[in-house]
Predict the 3D structure of the following.
Amino acid sequence: MVLNQFLLLSLFLFCTGVYGALVRRNGVLVLMSIELMLNAANLNLVAFSAFYKTEISGQVFALFVIAIAAAEVGVGLAIVLLLYRNLSSADLDRADSMKG
Amino acid sequence: MAHWAFLIPLVPAATYFVILLFGKRFGERCSYIGIGALGASWVMAAINAYQWIDRREIVRESVEWAQWGSGSIRVGTHVDGLATMMLVVVTSVSLLVHIYSLEYLRGDRRYTHYYAALSLFSASMLMLVIADNTLALLTSWELVGLCSFMLISHWWEDKDNSNAGLKAFITNRVGDVGLIVGIIILYFVAGKTFDIDTINSAALSGTIRHGTLLIAACCLLAAVCSKSGQVPLHIWLPDAMAGPTPVSALIHAATMVVAGVYMVARLYGVFFAGFSIGDGGMNLLALVGGVTMVIGASMAFVQNDIKRVLAYSTISQLGYMVAALGVGAWTGGVFHLFTHAFFKACLFLGAGSLSHACHHTFDMREMGGLRKKMPTTFLTFTIGTLALAGVPPLAGFWSKDEILNGARANDFPIIMVLGFVAAIMTAAYMGRALYLIFFGEYRGHAHPHESPKVMMVPVTILAGLAVVVGLLNAPFADYRFGQWVKFEVEVENLYGAEGAVAEGEAAAAAEGEHAAEGAAAAAEGEHAAEGEAGAEGEAAAEAEGEHAAEGEHVIVHSIAEIKELAPGETVLFEPEEHKFNIGVAGSSVAIGLVGLLIATWIYLLRKAPKNLLLVNPFRALHTLLVQKYYLDKLAVDGIAKGTAGPVADGSYWVNQKIIDGAVNGVGVTTKKYLAPFAYEQLDQFVVDGLYNGLGETTKGLGGAFRKLQNGRIQRYGLWLFFAVAILALVVALLA
Amino acid sequence: MNWFDDWGITLTVFIPIVGAIIVLLIPKGEEETIKGVALLTSLVTLGFAIGLMAEFDYDDTAKLQFDVNTSWIDVINSRYHVAIDGISLPLVLLSALIIVLCIVYSWNHFPEPHNPKALLALMLVLETGMIGTFVAQDLILFFIFFEVVLLPMYFMIGVWGGKNREYASIKFFLFTLFGSALMLLSFLAVYFSSKDPLTGQHTFDIVTLSTAGVLDVSKTAAVVMFGGMFLGFGIKVPMFPFHTWLPDAHTEAPTVGSVILAAVLLKLGTYGFIRVALPILPEGAQEWAPYIGLLAVIGIIYGALNCLAQKDVKRLIAFSSVAHMGFVMLGIATLTSAGINAAVFGMVAHGLITGLLFFIAGSMQERYHTREMSRLGGLLISAPKMGWILGFTAMASLGLPGLAGFWGEFPAILAAYEPLSVLSEETFRTYMVIAAVGTVLAAAYLLVMYQRVAMGEVPEEFKDEHIHDVHGPEWIAWAPMLILILALGVFPKLLFGITDDAVKHVTDGIATALNATSK
């Protein structure tokens, strides 16, 4: 089994996620980009776990991450919803009331 | 009485508070409280003097005052011949001045305050003379300075007066630095004690390094210079005449200004050993005194204000006293202090009487011809003048003669010459004052009249005293008619009565007393072993172990003898006995008369043409004035071209420009340049700026970082990402 | 009176804070009640302080009395340990007295923006902090009380102060906090280097730390630790280069603030030196002493010169504090019993004298609405009693013998002639002469001030104005100070008698630690 392809795919997914999270203005898209990064990590975990056959904790971790990501998306969407209600937009740049 | 000596200053001190707190209620009557208190003090001082003459017993009482570390600081009274004499002088003059002020200050806007301050002054001065330790001396020394300040600036509405007060206080403070440092040095070298007797013994014992002692003596000399108006710190004294005249008489002539002289006399062991007076030659103390007496006298010539003439005269006379102590003529110096108090107070009060009569002016140019209008004042003033000029048999002659003789006998020729120079000047300027005031025509615009009795009685008493007190130490009479006393026997040695008792007829009496005390002394054990002479007994019984434990006293007459002693022995220094010298006395009388004659010649010459013109009124007022002006000028030129003139102007110039100027310059520089520099440049700019700069920097940094925190989460993420990326790169490269 | 032995100090310390809470609970409108409660609290505190004085055993003033030592924060071995000895007692009394006088003084004229409730509460909190500092025998407890003082004073200056109050209050706060931080570091360093001989653990106990052998540090470490404490205490004193907060704080603070600041707060620093820094780190003290002495005499001269340059009465008095505290620090730097006795006396005397001067300056400002000396004059005519009191206090301040100020100055100068044998005599003798010269300058600036303010004619602008002479509350507030200044000046033994043994205990400890012959 070749590990590289999985890792390259994971790298691509992660970079896409980072780019999206840092650049997109829309809160929903940022959330989606975060999902991408999490799944990139998941891919790595599963890939390594499969590569080292004796070890299954990677797959267990991946399950955990999927579960938590689901919860996180729930919370994240709720925040975006509230933001939208308060600011009438999902634009994250307008939510800068914490500036010093 | 001597055991209760603390009561003498306590009564006026209590009066001070009474007048201060209840002055309003008493109004003018508070003056009688002051007089009553001083009267009581005078009576006590007199009783004390009587007992001293009768028993000659040094009495010391003390209580604990403060304590720190190893030592307890005691304060107490020490009544011996010197203190007894000073008590009499201070209470007498003060009482007379109190009475005199009743009329002189009548209707003054701060009558009660005046009497309160006078009481406080008397209390402090009396405390000063009976102080048994240097700390108490310092305390009362400063308190008299405070009273002097209060009284000089009595009429403080006028800025000149308060300036004079400030000048006095601050100049004295400069000297006080010397006093403080000197006292501290002596405290340590004498074995951690402020006790004056112990300090004197230690100084004479030869165990202290001479250099240390010299420094201590020089420090104390600074204090003497400021308090007793010695060059170069005398500058405050003429200005101090801004105060009411009775104050000038009491404080700035008779008592406070002699405090410095008194201190030298009291701590004579320190000065004697420090300045090596016994070695002859020249020393700083004598030099300061000698210079002061000439400079002071010369400056008196150029004054038109009678009080200023007297002030410079006081400076000059104080110079005599200091010089006397400097040449080892202890008795002479102290005796001059004693006589000077009376005749100078008499002169000042006379001046007050003149101003009372002449519309509150002290300008001699506005007086003249007052001889007939004010006969009592004239008479007393003349007595004072003659006493000051040293005409026998008045007081000043005897004391001045003793000083000059002492300078001769102890081999200080320069001081003797300076003394003669000052003597001729003294006679001349006093003659000038006398002629200007009482002879010639009246030049003022008031209607002079004799002052009331309340003022003239004290002046007359003082004049009477100025006549007789000199006889107390007249050399030819070895008199003990009944209770008659001789000054040099009563007020003599430094540490105890034993020296005086050892001499002459008193020894027998003391022996009797000692026998009576024998049992008590034997009970104390150590004294019995020591009783080698009757004379020792009394002192030993009194000295209570302090001296007795250290062994027997050795009486010496010069420092040379001290050096031969084994260390640890206690020394009693006893000044040379005064011997009459007809040559010195004769010259001093002759010189005094020459001085008076010079004055007479000049001022009679000036008077003559004026009278001629008056006889011939046809020549008109105009010529009279011109002539008078011309003669005035001539007289001044005559003086200026004569002996005293250039010297006087020169020294006055030095006084005003160089010494005064230096003091003012230092003051102005400090105030104008140094202080603003320290404040504006250094404090506000550099030091403060440093801290402000620190704050500003922090604030600037904060501002910079503030921009980073813009609240945009993605921007933060970006930073985070970059940071992690760089970190990863670094790790990768390092790995 | 057994309960008093146990509870006396604790009650004295904490009654004010209880009073402060009660004051805060009373509605703002009921001013009379608020003032009454505050006064009552301070009086009760003073009563307890006097009780301590009465029950104090004067035969053994070196011993810590009314000693209470119970566990407090066990994790760091910090204990609630309070006690007083001859050094603490006069300062506790002074603090309790000054607060009473301040409350009486401000009775009818609270400074703008009024609000007596807050001001009085702050004053009571201050009182707890001050008295607590003077009785604490545990470093952490000491530090907490030391810091408790900070905030109320900050608010007092910042809220009730003059024009430039924000600047002044922040300056005050930052300076002091900076010092405290380093001081705390030193305390921690001391803690971790110590070993309690009984328990074998680290300890914060001042008494234990002061005994030889408990603290095991090298000389260099001792010097560094002392440096931290020096900054903390020296800023509070304030010593010469750190003094710049003082004139601003004093000038801007309301009258009572200035009085408390001058009378008690500055003493926290000097007290810290005597109680904490010197006994715990004698070796550090030995190395630092010449520099402390140097800064002290610079302060004396420098403060006096600055006084001469002032045009504002209050600022002048503030700078005079720098000079006077210089004498106190000089006394401490000699490490001798004469010097430290002088320092304690100087602390009390300066508290009374400068406190009174600030009171008078405040009253004058209230009447004339200016503090410019060039505009004032003729106080002796307009308000003669106040003029006399000012003169009396100025004389006391310039160190006239017979009044309290002298006994703080003279023995300090005296002690400098012969410092502890391990210190350089030449250095300290030079300091002695400089300090003595400082007394001349003191006379100069105080008398010039007095001449400008009190003497001369009344200036035109105040000619028609009615200047009220000293009134009731002022008399009540000032009379005790006047009496004490005179009494302590005439009978210095009143105070020296209390402090001497306690001071000797401290200096003997230092001398033994340094192998010096105690003088």
